[in-house]
Amino acid sequence: MTNTKESSIETPKSSSNVETVMFNNNGGDLTNYSSTPITIYKLNGRNYIQWSQSFMFHVHSKEKEDYLTGHITKPDEKDVGYRIWKRDNSQVMSWLVNSMEPHIGENFLLYETAVEIWEAAKDTYSHKDNTPELVTIEGFLHDL
């Protein structure tokens, strides 16, 4: 039988905030990891509205939406909150890329921030100017 004792510690979220993180008896973080899927929608180039809304529900539930809105910006690397920002930004970037079809997600692997990926996905797939259709056609033509 597994011992499920939990303890909590406080870690700096940024230079002015504190975040409480729960750990199990093996030191694993219980607050950021679960078996709940990020979204049932994988961005496929034709379902931006469903994907973006569903993705934002997940991000709101984890209180990380500021990484997509730009309200939290990259601090200086010497700032006391940089490591926390880098960890959280990387987590949101991972959620983004992993909630996309592989052929779409691979296009976002070199971005540096979650907000850059979020905005680029919006610009590319929100159907404002038929860009998704152009990307599909270009891919088809490339394969010929």
Summarize the structure.
The protein is an alpha+beta fold and 144 residues long. It is built from 6 helices and 2 strands; from the N terminus they run ββαααααα. Helix 3 runs parallel beside helix 5 (114-125).
Notes on the structure:
The chain is of the alpha+beta class and 144 residues long. The protein contains 6 helices and 2 strands. Helix 3 (82-98) runs parallel beside helix 5 (114-125). The chain has helices at 48-61, 66-69, 82-98, 102-105, 114-125, 131-143; strands at residues 6-14, 17-24. A hairpin with a 2-residue loop joins strand 1 (6-14) and strand 2. The longest helix is centred in the middle third of the chain and has 17 residues, at 82-98. Strands 1-2 form a two-stranded antiparallel ribbon. The model is unreliable at 2-30 (pLDDT under 50). The N and C termini lie far apart (58 Å).
